[in-house]
């Protein structure tokens, strides 16, 4: 098995939150990391000085940027041993209140970007698995993949899509040495909601008032690092009790949620609006 210092891992969305924590942890363990974000100054400030880390300005939702990102990894390292699909956006509100371009943007980043970047990376990951005994795909999904509730209906749909994609991909590549993992956090203290509503922080100081409530990103980064060292594919809830969200898929519970939540859509709309206003003002 290849030692961490000889493994090349691509991490998307490395300028803040879960991605930043993951890049920092992997660099500390000796991995060679390439990471990307849409904002180059913020990315360089966050992780650019870490040993073994290279930064690329790229938008995972853009096809040309995805291709250029893979080209950069291969030009610099000539191989790819793992990919952490972390970049994502959220939007809080009822579907009827969402602009169409927001729906398209969230799907393009959270689902299409995940599938397409994996497709581009897969030949190189399969080569790594043949030559070194393993390769890894780690998708940062969400507990919302298992229980789709407003005001995160579209976000939840993209994460449910990621969940289905990962299950299918495992059945394509497991026997060929590629582990395929999902890490499914509950709410995390990140900028995802502010970014999704068009107010990305320009610095760490600017981010202080825009963070969503939740667990520390380091807890998620720890589980991502564990996936890259696991014997087999993993599906992980962070914290562990967040796995209870799977109960929402049971028909009796699902039908109850249908009735209860739809009857409270007005209150959900107001609560979401207040949450967004606090993080974007």
TrEMBL record:
The keyword Flavoprotein does not apply. Pfam families: adh_short. SUPFAM superfamilies: NAD(P)-binding Rossmann-fold domains. Belongs to the short-chain dehydrogenases/reductases (SDR) family. This is Short-chain dehydrogenase. Gene3D superfamilies: NAD(P)-binding Rossmann-like Domain. Keywords: Oxidoreductase. The keyword Oxidoreductase applies. It comes from Blastococcus haudaquaticus. The lineage of its organism: Bacteria, Bacillati, Actinomycetota, Actinomycetes, Geodermatophilales. One of its GO terms (cellular component) is membrane. GO terms for molecular function: oxidoreductase activity. CDD domains: SDR_c (cd05233). Signal peptide: none annotated.
């Amino acid at each position: 098995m290849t030692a961490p210092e000889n493994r090349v891992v691509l991490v998307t969305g490395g300028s803040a939150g879960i991605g930043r924590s993951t890049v920092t942890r992997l660099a500390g363990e000796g991995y060679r990391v390439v990471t990307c974000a849409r904002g180059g100054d913020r990315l360089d400030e966050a992780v650019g000085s870490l040993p073994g880390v290279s930064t690329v300005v790229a938008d995972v939702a853009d096809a040309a940027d995805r291709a250029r990102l893979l080209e950069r990894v291969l030009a610099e390292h000539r191989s790819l041993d793992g990919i952490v699909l972390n970049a994502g956006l959220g939007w809080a509100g009822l579907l009827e209140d969402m602009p169409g371009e927001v729906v398209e943007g969230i799907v393009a980043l959270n689902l299409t970007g995940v599938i397409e970047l994996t497709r581009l990376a897969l030949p190189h990951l399969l080569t790594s698995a043949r030559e070194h005994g393993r390769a890894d795909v780690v998708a940062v999904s969400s507990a919302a993949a298992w229980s789709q509730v407003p005001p995160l209906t579209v976000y939840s749909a993209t994460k449910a899509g990621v969940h289905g994609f990962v299950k299918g991909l495992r059945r394509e590549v497991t026997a060929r040495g590629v582990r395929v993992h999902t890490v499914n956090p509950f709410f995390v203290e990140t900028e995802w909601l502010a970014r999704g509503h068009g107010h990305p922080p320009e610095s760490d100081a600017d981010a202080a008032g825009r963070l969503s409530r939740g667990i520390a990103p380091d807890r998620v980064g720890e589980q991502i690092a564990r996936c890259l060292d696991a014997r087999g594919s993993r599906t992980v809830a962070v914290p562990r009790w967040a796995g209870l969200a799977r109960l929402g898929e049971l028909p009796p519970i699902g039908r109850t949620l249908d009735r209860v939540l739809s009857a409270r859509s007005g209150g959900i709309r107001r609560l979401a609006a207040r949450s967004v206003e606090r993080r974007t003002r």
